[in-house]
Structures are given as structure tokens and as C-alpha cells.
Amino acid sequence: MKISAAAGKPADPSILVNVPKLVTAYYTLRPDVSDSGQRVVFGTSGHRGSALDGAFNEWHILAITQAICDYRKLQNIDEPLFLGMDTHALSEPAFASALEVIAANKIEVMLSEGTRYTPTPAVSHAILRHNRGRQTGLADGIVITPSHNPPDDGGFKYDPPHGGPADSHVTSWIESKANEYLRSPMEGIKRMLFAQALRASTTRRYDYLHSYVGDLGSVIDMASIRDTKIALGVDPLGGAGVDYWPIIAERYGLNLTVVNESIDPTFRFMTVDWDGKIRMDPSSPYAMQRLIGLKDKFDIAFASDTDHDRHGIVTKGSGLLPPNHYLSVCIQYLFANRKNWGQDVSVGKTAVSSSLIDRVCARLGRRLYEVPVGFKWFVEGLLVGRLGFGGEESAGCSFLRFDGSVWTTDKDGIIPCLLSAEITARLGRDPGEIYRELTRDLGDPLYERIEAPATLEQKAVLADLSPSDIPITEVAGEKVQQILTTAAGDGNPIGGIKVITKNGWFAARPSGTEDIYKIYAESFLGQDHLGRIEEEAQTIVSDALARSARAAAKN
């Protein structure tokens, strides 16, 4: 993975998105449905793309929203639809398009009161709050966000009544129906003018901010953070939580400084990511350079991405913690300190997260529940309290309230940030120090992720590999213990392969949102061993793709 010379540096004006051009493309370009790249496609987190290349335009949003309205009717979902958006340039026009359709379908919709933007976890929290104790009269939601993706991207995701990301059978139905609308001259799509939609009797306001913030004491020990007066720094990265952090500080009396209050759809205040692009990724040391530079001013500092469903934790001694490091610390701390969580409450992790988590769980005596990539696999477990924690290597997680009941069923970037403050306040040591203690006891793994270009055909081959397609017995000098194509916890396909040895592993899977595949690798034996795993993994994947190409050519 080649690192750009611009990585970690302030964004050059030449790479800033032309917002007027982007929004014009949203309204004027009609997608070509014969082009697979311009159809509605729900990946791991909804439909995403740029208006500039015909992947996220008004037609897409009108079609998807009508499909969601149709789905609600089929499922007898007849209570409010909670609608939120982030600060990306395409979120505002997509919000308008969605509301025009929702209002025309006479669906009660809840818009944010007092602030324009709504974090993903605040929408999940609102859905669950409405639906608590109900079997009928259920609510659901839409969040308009491409998460941490570059400024020219848009995103649109649906949360059913369980409050988390929709399962694949739901998104497949919505995707298929939306593409039907795109192939027709948009027949059957109901729509009214935006001004009328805002005035419609079914359009209402909901105080997402104070509902969410006022409930934080049920999931985080805010009193300890307040009483110790530790200095906290937060960078909202220009995202949907920018209005939330000052209210959190005021409501709970925290010594918290918001280091950047800017909202700018070009995100010109960011330092650029590894490939020279702007991404609001709180897990990237390149994107987080500004907050890392301020680490000595605070006892603990943190950031969240644009829709505030991911976290980044910065400590004085360790700088930015890699996501796997912090997930391990969270699990160790939560399961040692949440006394009302039953002994049968398990730990959820994705198949490509660190194996140090496995060792932490074994020491805690907790069952590990490993799932494919995608937060949707944690939803049911979090909803019923079977999972105390669900986390993925891309810095997304959520966990239960103190009493063991559900908090959110979607990723929440705010509570893990506040948990880092709770850990520091209560233990007198920050999460970086706790992680070093874990590695002294359980081993010190090295973990990397590599990305490589892949065509749609290659991605399909990789997703469909079986153990018989991987004729190996050793990796990096160690005997192969397992070759998995399904997750060990729930048995669902991981969309690729995972090869495990005694002291290391690698996994390879196609991206759900980009034309790349990813290799994840980890070693407990040092950098040389990790390098060997990565090199052999790339050879194994390349050979499998080549064999498939040869077989296809013969047929």
C-alpha cells in the first residue's frame, strides 16, 4: 500500500471538492442503469457514491426512499420514521429529496429540532426509545451519510425497527425495488414540493440531541469524569456531533474542550489520509494529525467521524490508539466493571479484528462471538442483551447500559470516546497504558491491513472461495490450523477466507464499497513474521484469482 507524500499534511486547495459542481451533478445527472456502477447498491452500510460519477444522484434517492416507503407498508411499520443527516455536501440535497417522498407517502417523519445534523447513534437511540416494550406501532429510520468517506461522496442507509443496520434480505428487497423504479420513468414514486413537505401535517420535530445526551448517564459513569476534572479534548472532524459535545460538557459538568467547531462541506481543515484523499477517519493517524499534535494538552482526547459512528482515541503516551488496541481495552474494562451484566453476556467481534480480543475473553471467562464484517451481525445480540459489546476493527462499536439493557444497535462513536475518559478517571491510567499492561500478560500482536485493486469479477471470485481453493498446509513457517469461509460465532459467510496458525492469521475479502480487496494480517511473533504472512497471503490470493480466471477462459 503506497503512502502518498501528502499524507498527514493539510489539504491542498487543489483537491477540495467543488461543492456547486457536485450539487449540480446531483440534480442534473440521470443514472444509467445499464452501468452497474450507477445502479442502487447497498453495501455494508447502505448505498454510497458520488454524484459526479452518476452513483449518488436525485434519482437514486427518490427511488430508494419510495422503496423504503413500500417496504414499510408491506411490513406494517406505521409509526414515525426518524430521519437524520450528516454534514457531507450531498446530505442536504438528499435530505430534501427523501423528505419530498416521505411526506407524499403520508408517513409521519421526525426531523431534528434545534440542530440540522443528527449522529447515527442518536437515530438508533430514538428508534429504540420509541419501540421499547412495543410489539406493534413500531418506528424505523433513515440516516443520510457516507460515514467517513471523502467529501464528494453521499450515503443513504436504512435502519429497521431494531434500530441497527438493515439485514441483507431487507436491503436486497429495497435495492431491487429501487432499481425497478430507476429502470422505469420513475412511475409509482410519490413526491411533493420540499416546501410543502416541510409544512405537511405528518412532518414533525424531535429533539434528538437532548434525548440522547440526557440518557448518557445510563451507559457511561459521567460523575467520575466530572469529579476528577480530567482535561478532555474532542475534535468532531466537522461532523454531525459538532453541536452535541458542548451540550454533553454543560449537562455533565465536564472539563471538555472542542478543538474544532468548523462545519465546511469541503472539509478543508482536515489533514489528508494515506492516499492523499480527504477522509474524516478518526482511526487514521494521517487524518488525525491535528488532534495528535494537541495530545499533551489533555489527559485524554478523542474524535468521531462525520456521522459519529466511529471513534479515535488519542493518549499522551501512545498518541492515536489503533482500533484493535482500544477495542481490547474496552472489553477488558467493561467486563471487569459492569457488575450488572450477567455471566452469560458475550463479547462480539468481527472476523478481521485482533486475536488479542480472543485472549482477553479467555482470561475474563467470557464467550467470544465472532461474526463477518458489518455491524448488522451484532444487532440482535445487543438488542436482547446477549452481547455486552460488539466491535469491529474499523473503529466501530457499541455496548450495553449499566443495567445490561440495549443502548444502541448501530455503531456509536460518542460512547467509546466518553468511555476512554471514564477509564482514565476511574483507573488513573489512560487506555494506552492499559493496553501495554494487556500485552505484557497476553502477548503483543502486530496487525496490518493491505488494500489492492480488484475488478467486480475478481471480487466475486474472492467472496466465493472455499477451503479447497486454498491448497496450503503452512503459512510463514507455521502449520495451518483452520481455513474458514464462515464466521466462527454465527456461521455466516465472511465473504472471503481466513487462514489461522498458532501465532498468526490472515483474512482476505473484497470491499463492499470500493473496487479493491483487503488483506488483514496479524502476528504475535514480530514484524518479520507479519511480513511473511502478508507476502504469502498476497501470493495465495493472487494464485486463487489466476486459477479462477484460467478456468473462466476455458469455459
Account of the protein in words:
The protein is built from 17 helices and 23 strands. It has 555 residues and is of the alpha/beta class. Strands 1-2-6-5-3-4-7 form a seven-stranded mixed beta sheet, sandwiched between helices. Helix 2 crosses helix 3, helix 2 packs across helix 5 (168-183) and helix 11 (323-337) packs parallel to helix 12.
Fold topology:
Blueprint: H1 19-28, E1 42-43, E2 46-50, H2 58-74, E3 81-85, H3 91-104, E4 109-112, H4 120-131, E5 140-144, E6 153-159, H5 168-183, H6 194-199, E7 203-206, H7 208-213, H8 222-228, E8 232-235, H9 244-252, E9 256-258, H10 289-293, E10 300-304, E11 311-315, E12 319-320, H11 323-337, E13 346-350, H12 356-364, E14 368-371, H13 379-384, E15 387-392, E16 396-399, H14 414-427, H15 431-442, E17 446-453, H16 456-463, E18 474-475, E19 478-479, E20 482-486, E21 493-500, E22 504-510, E23 516-523, H17 527-554
Parallel strand pairs: 3-4, 3-5, 4-7, 8-9, 8-10, 13-14, 13-15
Antiparallel strand pairs: 1-2, 2-6, 5-6, 10-11, 11-12, 15-16, 17-23, 18-19, 20-21, 21-22, 22-23
Helix pairs in contact: 2-3, 2-5, 8-14, 11-12, 11-15
Oligomer: single chain
The helix/strand class is alpha/beta
Helix content: 25-40%
Question: How many helical elements?
Answer: 17
Whole-number average pLDDT? 95
Give the N-to-C terminal Cα separation.
Answer: 34 Å
Gross morphology: globular
